[in-house]
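Sorry to interrupt, but I need a hand with the structure work. Leave the record below and I will have a look:
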Amino acid sequence: MKHGPDISKLAAVIGDPARASMLSALMSGKALTSSELAVEGGIGAATASSHLAKLHDAGLVRVRVQGRHRYWTLADAEVAQVLETLMGLAARTTGRVRTGPKDVAMRKARVCYNHLAGDYGVRLFTALIEKDVIIEMDDGLSLGAGSSRFIAAMGLTLKPGRPVCRACLDWSERSTHLAGSFGTALLSRVFDLGWARRDPQTRAVHFTADGERQFLLLTRPAERAAVSARGHEEVDLQGRDRMVRLVLPGEGLDIGDGAADAIKRGPGEGVDGAAGA
């Protein structure tokens, strides 16, 4: 007697090599046309349409019509998380000691649908745990005591209606990186500040020299670290009883103990910043 949902049908949809390649291409978070996905799957246009229909029926992708074109994306972040986990599981069955992509840039930093993955994604997650910005609980992740100050200082706006913090198993690092609206907002802020750019051909994220320096200082486990490339300001995101001065390109914020809780504010009431993509 069967118990629970039947995963065999969903597994069969994902398991086709062409469909798996198309889903992997959509992990970049970009909307792609049927023709572009046909190239990714190594198949013809007619066959691609048939595969996309099956993926759509299974709830794995969604389509948006704009003019004469149909643009496809993954259905949501949960689908992306499942695919990232499957990539890690698949790597374990190949006998390879080294997991993840061969491309050094992809291993270092890449987009996992809408958040940062790779070595830098794991570094960021680890730093947020150490600074009590997020905490690990038995049933998942939650915002920590240092979250309000960090969110305000970074100028983040978190989208309502989505899980704030989600743990995503990293394909290459075999450790956790941050997903959810918090992870999305952080990656968007990295791009908006000019610290990094996304490779238009792959999922790789390329940091500028200045952006990489600031990102690495921001993720240092030390309690105090210089964060400005201009070398004059410091950030203390861990000492809860002290004034915080975080200097980002073109801006600086003094956040004391009375910092407003950005999470509890309604839409449009948060600190001005980059909304999650």
